[in-house]
Amino acid sequence: MPARWWRTLGAVFVLLVFVPPLVLLVSGSLTEPGQPPPPTPRLLPEPLSAAGYEHAWSLGSLGRATLNSVLVAAVAVPLSVLVAAWAGFALARSSRRLVTVVVTASLLALMAPATALLLPRFVIFRFLGLTDTLVPLIAPALLGASPLYVLVYYLAFRGLPADLYDTCRLCDLTPARTWWRFALPVVRPVTAALTALSFILTWSNFLDPLVYVYDRDLFTLPLALRSLSVLDPTNFPVFLAGAVVATLPPVIVFVLAQRWFLRSESPGRQLR
Length: 272
What we know:
The structure is a single chain. By secondary structure, this protein is an all-alpha fold. It has a single domain, classed as MetI-like (MetI-like fold). The chain has helices at residues 3-29, 51-59, 62-92, 96-111, 118-127, 135-138, 147-158, 162-170, 175-186, 188-203, 207-212, 221-231, 236-261, 267-271. The two termini are 29 Å apart.
């Protein structure tokens, strides 16, 4: 079966899995607030009402929470991808012994549960006086956010033809110029995929803001949605309206990035 058929089947599968919940989410958010939930889901509630969005925006302070989430994502996502790309390229050009040690340590780090690091990280940020700020939400990006990103970039850069690196060496290019001008453009689909993944994980991060942020003015969208859900658990259209606001940016990022991780270009075509 040609590759395009597999891609078409994958796209159809994604649509069947993700589109119906999104449709029901939007439909529920357009229900009149204060009404009891319908016995069965409705695609078009009667009457249609946008009052849920007004209540969610005012009661949940979604405007400020959205700005906080955008600020964290705008700094953390590019920084984490950039650091991971640097580390992956350096690892791909390192000796076999060093690669073995680093890859083994990265795999062991991936096996450790994230909650096991909460206490030591909290102690460090509390000692530095950085709790109740957005810094603890951005600081992990200085380490590439996750060893997974570094390993993905390492495999991508290692898979490039050795002639590419030899040519750059003969042209007396520095490793930084080789990385920027030749290696990074070839792995552009990997960059797009990791950027989308990093954005989604950063945008939906609930545990870290819950641990480090106490000031309501610094709440990110996941914390704002939690506050919104406990105000009136029976008024589901208001909470669903807030969920639509929180879900829309990841959907947009995925749509913008999907053409890169559904399309694979050969290194020779990229270098021309």
